[in-house]
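User: quick one
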Amino acid sequence: MIPANNAVSKPVIGKTRARTGSLEGHLHRLTPYLFLAPSLLVFAMFYYFPFIKTIVMSGYITNNRGILKKFVGFANYLNLFRSPDFKQSLLVTLRFMPMVFIPTLILGMLMALIAEKRVKYLSPVTEVLFSLPMAVASASAAIVWRMAFHPSVGVLNYVLGTQFQWLTDKNTALFSVALVTVWLQVGFTFIFLVTGLRCVPAELIESASLDGCGALRQIVHIKLPMISPTLFFVIFFNLIASFQSFGQVRLLTQGGPGTTTLTLGYIIYLEAFQNKRYGSAAAMSMLLFLLLLSITLMQFRFERKGVFYN
Amino acid sequence: MVLRVVACLLLGLMMAAPVLYGFSISLMQERDIMSYPPKLFPVNSSLMNYAHVLRTIPIFRFIGNSAFVSLSVCLGQILTCSMAAYAFVFFRFKARGALFIAVLATMMIPGEATIIANFLTISSMGLSDTYQALILPFTTSAMGVFLVRQFYLTTPKELKEAAQIDGCGDIQFFAKILLPLSTPVLGALSVYTIINTWNQYMWPLLVTNTPEKRTVQIGISMLQFQESLSMGLINAGCICILAPSILFFAIGHKKMAQSLTAGAVKG
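Assistant: Done. Structure below.
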């Protein structure tokens, strides 16, 4: 079947070549661009153009409707590094990041190891339950968690026997937001890790256990190295998502108490849409972009060095 | 084995606990919610809060808006992403490599770096508080193009050659042969985009300002800032908008998980 197909395909290629030059040939060469046009148009309007506009805007002072008024060069950026709020939001974000991605990774890994083996009837249910938060919006999550955080009648204090003012104490507020964020992200992490684990060749595990390699050593010496590409992707994804946390911050703490939960994602929102200082907000966005870019580049470099590809 | 089953179900219950807790509160009366010790299960359970939601909040309007916006975004992505993927896989042309990188590069631009300018564009176009504002910016995605492309790469090239011999043109081949073949990947893309659009918060918060155009997340979260409303009512509203997305997720879960991880997980 296949060789026959190949035999016939040759003249077709010849025919396509012969068409170039003619009107039909020109049209034929345009076809791929026509198919790309809708998607490129949207990218141009809502990705490339606004990105460039943000770069430009970060060099200007704007009025409250976003019209560029005065070119100030790098003044917006310099002002940011003099602003205590912005410095604080960088610090908050740097503290928030490990608070989210480390527990997410450990929990996600644990869940993946538990759910790894396919069991009839059980696996589909487990997988949906373990990744359930993927279906929940940050805004909805904030609403259901808010009640659990309630200091006097919330279930968290009751179960733990504590008396924390979860969302209004400056020592626990960031932790509380991180807890909700971990819950929101762990489902996605689990899905990737469990798929990764299932792709580890069964013979490898079998021969290891024949050699007397225990379950824990199998995990550390075989499974983890084998899924390291997935692991890196998941770490990278979680870092970026924790940088951008917005809905849960706005609905749980509004950056407070004081500025203790003022993440980068939230301060950009405040600067742009409450203070209407679009130029300065654009400068913040660009710094956020550069931070994310450097994380990505670091990830690529790490990946080349430390990841085992089969 | 028994241990595994118990561990799976216990952990699964823990993951679902916040949602179940919200559901339980939505069935309680205000004095039970505010009593100590906190109750995990409703004592005098009633659907009163739900009846109250229907009376006080245009919840069907919000759900209708979100459903319309999510479906439109989904249709848009199916169309633009599969067309772009078709061009990348089945044609050789000069700018192919460069354009593919240009598409992937949009993944590197964080939402924060475009949202301000997009907001200003939409308002200057007079599109604030319209469905267009909620839909247009999301009608394509690099992820979608990438997903569909990965799928097309696995379809045999001979398929198109054979179709050409039978006199099938480029557009015909795409619409009549390739699209029907790609239902698995398009299904996965649909589940992913519909859930994501349904769950959007920041963008609809910025571009809508009347209840007529508000989407579910905005409509419900606004209740939280109204002190006069009870927690039971707010949780009932929240469950109303969570139920469709969780149901949809449970149905489409397998397909979505397979396609999403296909590109990132290597054996």
